[in-house]
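Input structure tokens:
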């Protein structure tokens, strides 16, 4: 059985973590396949939106704690542990930095430790009512090794982030929505339908504008307001030359729904 499923249809790529009997915990092979799938999403212009979810009742439990315990018992050095993160786990967030297409995470169950951090990397996050979130590193005497300490304060603020990182307690789906950790909570049996409906809207939208908007938001997080305005002016010039822009303005004038071509 493949540890990661990757399929495309209708301009949407779906990545499914597929170790349900192990809480979809990472393995080296899963991480390699995950990176390869993301690279394909970056390369293939026919893919206009990407969805990530987990098989079974757990979204992702992060690193395989049993494997970590075996490594610790066998004398794995601190250097080797850090290097493993760099060589394998960190490949996912770093590759995602190159993806300017919408990346939507459907959290179908518990997301813990690095599994929660992987969920935080989504542009949008939708959660099933049964979903729970925990920065559980502290429970095993560890620190957030997959970007959680950087991403979480930017989503929920520093005090709440520190509370989650220091205590490692679970936050339920409704609380996650209240504090801005997820965009929306839906019934368990409606999670994928809702997620795919949003992905379809994005996949069928004006592709260049959508991708540039993501770039603008990312650059704006680390640039001055003046630089952001300069980028916005440049992006406006690019979008104004697209077929989708001409179609959208014509459709508006003709009082009809635009039909976008993604170019």
């Amino acid at each position: 059985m493949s540890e990661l499923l990757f399929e495309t249809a209708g301009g949407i790529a779906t990545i499914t973590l597929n170790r349900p009997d192990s809480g979809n915990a990472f393995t080296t092979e899963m991480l390699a396949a995950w990176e390869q799938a993301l690279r394909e999403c970056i390369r293939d212009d026919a893919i206009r939106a990407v969805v990530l979810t987990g098989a079974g009742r757990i979204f992702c439990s992060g690193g395989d704690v049993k494997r970590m315990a075996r490594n610790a018992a066998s004398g794995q050095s601190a250097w080797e542990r850090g290097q493993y993160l760099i060589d394998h786990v960190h490949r996912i967030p770093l590759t995602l930095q190159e993806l300017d297409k919408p990346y939507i995470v459907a959290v179908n169950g518990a997301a813990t430790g690095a599994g929660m951090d992987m969920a935080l990397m989504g542009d949008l996050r939708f959660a099933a009512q049964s979903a729970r979130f925990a920065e559980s590193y502290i429970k095993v005497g560890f620190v957030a090794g997959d970007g959680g300490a950087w991403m979480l304060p930017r989503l929920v603020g520093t005090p709440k982030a520190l509370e989650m990182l220091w205590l490692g307690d679970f936050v339920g789906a409704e609380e996650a929505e209240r504090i801005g950790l997820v965009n929306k909570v839906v019934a368990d049996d409606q999670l994928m339908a809702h997620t795919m409906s949003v992905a379809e809207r994005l996949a069928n939208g004006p592709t260049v504008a959508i991708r540039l908007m993501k770039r603008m938001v990312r650059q704006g997080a680390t640039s001055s307001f003046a630089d952001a305005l300069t980028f916005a002016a440049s992006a406006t010039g690019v979008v104004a030359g697209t077929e989708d822009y001409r179609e959208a303005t014509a459709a508006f004038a003709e009082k009809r729904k635009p039909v976008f071509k993604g170019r």
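Residues 131 and 173 are 5 Å apart (CA to CA). Strands lie at 4-9, 12-17, 49-54, 58-60, 103-107, 110-112, 124-128, 132-134, 171-172, 184-186.
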